[in-house]
Amino acid sequence: MDPNSFFSPIAHMLPSISTAYPTTPPPSNLPFLQLYPIFMDYRFPVLFAIIYVVSVSILNPSSNNVSRIVAMQKGLKASSVKKSSDSMTTFVFLHNLVLFIFSFAAFANVTPALVKNYTTHSFTDAYCDRDGSFWDDALGYWGYLFYLSKFYEVIDTIIIILKSRRSSLLQTYHHAGAMITMWA
User: How far apart are CA 108 and CA 142, in angstroms?
Assistant: First the structure.
């Protein structure tokens, strides 16, 4: 088999893909609609993720402070673990509450549209969203907001660093990767 003939169906598409971002028009009721082309440019999440990883690498404290839960599991005395202030505890609680409420709202709005899409279309048509109905009903709006929430979730790492704890490699690359994969 000739390699050129194998890739020829894809090769003629590449120029049009690179010049046609975003390929699907945004829902008209999106917040920050004027920023949609910037946020949906592939360079935005990649650049943000790189800046995030470099910043965490620079700002990560050298100490190996652990959370109160890890300290209790290791049998350390409570007095050896730095306790968070009441204002930090309140902030962390509210931050997590906002993320929970948003995630639940996204789930509650996307799930009925997904079920409707699969019950009214063939499997292939529903999976590929050939008529754009799933995009128009929920995915365009809620998927975009969920993508933007990945940038807000960087606050998780900021909280860890403000508590003088190290952001783990998993924590750092999870958030960087989530930005890029949610864009995709």
Answer: 10
* Per-position DSSP letters for 1-26, written without gaps between them: --HHHHHHHHHTTHHHHHHS-SSSPP
DSSP 90-139: HHHHHHHHHHHHHHHHHHHHHHHHHHHHHHHS-HHHHHHTTTSHHIIIII
Rounded distance between C-alpha atoms, residue 22 and residue 86, angstroms: 44
pLDDT in tens, 123-151: 999 999 999 899 888 999 999 999 999 99
Q: Which two tokens stand for residue 12?
A: 């003629």
Phi, psi of 166 (to 5 degrees): -85, 140
Contact between 42 and 21 under an 8 Å Cβ cutoff? The reply is: yes
pLDDT, one tens digit per residue, over 32-61 is 888 999 999 999 999 999 999 999 999 998
Please give the C-alpha separations between residue 14 and each of 7, 114, 153, in angstroms, as whole numbers. Answer: 11, 30, 33
Q: Look up residue 176 and give its DSSP letter.
A: H
The alpha carbon dihedral of 91, 92, 93, 95 has a sign of: positive
In whole angstroms, what is the distance from residue 107 CA to residue 120 CA?
20
